Amino acid sequence: MARLAQYSHRLSVAPGKTFIQEGEAATDFYIVTAGHTKIFTLMPDGRRQITGFGQSGDFLGLASGATYAFSAEALGPLSLCRFSRTGLGLLRREFPELELRLMEEASRELVQAQRRMLLLGRKTARERLASFLLEQHHLSPTKEIVIHLPMSRTGIADYLGLTIETVSRTLNALQREMMITITQVTQITLLNLPALEHLARGG
Amino acid sequence: MARLAQYSHRLSVAPGKTFIQEGEAATDFYIVTAGHTKIFTLMPDGRRQITGFGQSGDFLGLASGATYAFSAEALGPLSLCRFSRTGLGLLRREFPELELRLMEEASRELVQAQRRMLLLGRKTARERLASFLLEQHHLSPTKEIVIHLPMSRTGIADYLGLTIETVSRTLNALQREMMITITQVTQITLLNLPALEHLARGG
DNA sequence: CGGCGCGTTGATGCAAGTCAAATTTAGTGG
DNA sequence: CCACTAAATTTGACTTGCATCAACGCGCCG
């Protein structure tokens, strides 16, 4: 591990700070060591699509071209480990098990990306919200039926390809239909998991 | 290369044949050696989302779980090289340069997946078609402005998250606006690349 | 207390979906 | 090569789900 230090650099990022900017030279590569990030792309007129979230242990900055194809922002206090792109190559030679982790991570992300393309391309607003709530549920380590939403309505909307109004209305509709209870703005109780699962898969 | 043969197996697939079925045990891994495939996911009621296409040289079957999360179908006569999942692990150890190719491929696909999430989540029908036409244009080795659509209207619709009627109408609208000419059903001439690029990026 | 950010709710508009019919294209056998 | 059929595409009329525009309510903090 002696050589690791000369290619890596630990750093902290303030909440809300964008530490990877779409279009900039993709010189570095990051590993999240603590906290959460959101990964998104923007259109010139401000339309935003959140393509994913990064948690502790996740890799960030896998770019195929010379520049980043996305931006990344700290959702809260964030700790990162930064590698230079060249350093990563050397590291990979040094630690074969890293290679495996990288592939696993890439596969996992690719599968998730496919799920999200189905959601964004073919699901209705109700189905998207149901899918989202269940995803949050599965992410929770305790599998509690009370889930905490880690983002605002704007975040949910940009993640699901909807508007904040539709998110709000749809959430309330699901509550009226007794599938969920909106305990607080960012806290929801899942009342009818089978119904939500049925809805999420779309039939 | 001696050991390669004992883990790999060349095979041909008939046009239209589905050779990877969503939900089945993800035991194998493929490399496309000739032809084209489409990769898609289905919903119980038949809604389909094409998540991508595989060409010669592409890897297929990167699954994170025990089962495939997608189906793959031969678009025409197709040649594949199949590896057992265990064989792949051994191969990776044997050929470090394969490792690199795998990572490059995964990165490229991840970047493309992000572009597609933006398209599916935030772009209008016109923007989607413009993006699609330019993608086909960039895929062509000769960069001809006459492009050949490698699929039917149904295929385009399932790729872009639209209906066949909207695809047809939008294509004709772009023709009326002098951005393209529909020479034949599957052959389109791009008349105004700057306008299409402007439209595709959304402003 | 008052302004401000965020969320909810309501009224209205419109892009894309649905349903259906017309038309073109492709395929098949005589 | 042509007639006939089946499939794909286009076109039209209509519907609808979500977006847009606009109030309104509610914490929260200076």
From TrEMBL, chains A, B:
<feature type="domain" description="Cyclic nucleotide-binding">
    <location>
        <begin position="1"/>
        <end position="61"/>
    </location>
</feature>
<dbReference type="Pfam" id="PF00027">
    <property type="entry name" value="cNMP_binding"/>
</dbReference>
<dbReference type="InterPro" id="IPR012318">
    <property type="entry name" value="HTH_CRP"/>
</dbReference>
<dbReference type="InterPro" id="IPR050397">
    <property type="entry name" value="Env_Response_Regulators"/>
</dbReference>
<dbReference type="InterPro" id="IPR036388">
    <property type="entry name" value="WH-like_DNA-bd_sf"/>
</dbReference>
<dbReference type="Pfam" id="PF13545">
    <property type="entry name" value="HTH_Crp_2"/>
</dbReference>
<dbReference type="GO" id="GO:0005829">
    <property type="term" value="C:cytosol"/>
</dbReference>
<dbReference type="InterPro" id="IPR014710">
    <property type="entry name" value="RmlC-like_jellyroll"/>
</dbReference>
<keyword id="KW-0804">Transcription</keyword>
<dbReference type="InterPro" id="IPR000595">
    <property type="entry name" value="cNMP-bd_dom"/>
</dbReference>
<dbReference type="GO" id="GO:0003677">
    <property type="term" value="F:DNA binding"/>
</dbReference>
<dbReference type="GO" id="GO:0003700">
    <property type="term" value="F:DNA-binding transcription factor activity"/>
</dbReference>
<protein>
    <submittedName>
        <fullName>Nitrogen fixation regulation protein FixK</fullName>
    </submittedName>
</protein>
<keyword id="KW-0805">Transcription regulation</keyword>
<dbReference type="InterPro" id="IPR018490">
    <property type="entry name" value="cNMP-bd_dom_sf"/>
</dbReference>
<feature type="domain" description="HTH crp-type">
    <location>
        <begin position="123"/>
        <end position="194"/>
    </location>
</feature>
<dbReference type="InterPro" id="IPR018335">
    <property type="entry name" value="Tscrpt_reg_HTH_Crp-type_CS"/>
</dbReference>
<keyword id="KW-0238">DNA-binding</keyword>
<dbReference type="InterPro" id="IPR036390">
    <property type="entry name" value="WH_DNA-bd_sf"/>
</dbReference>
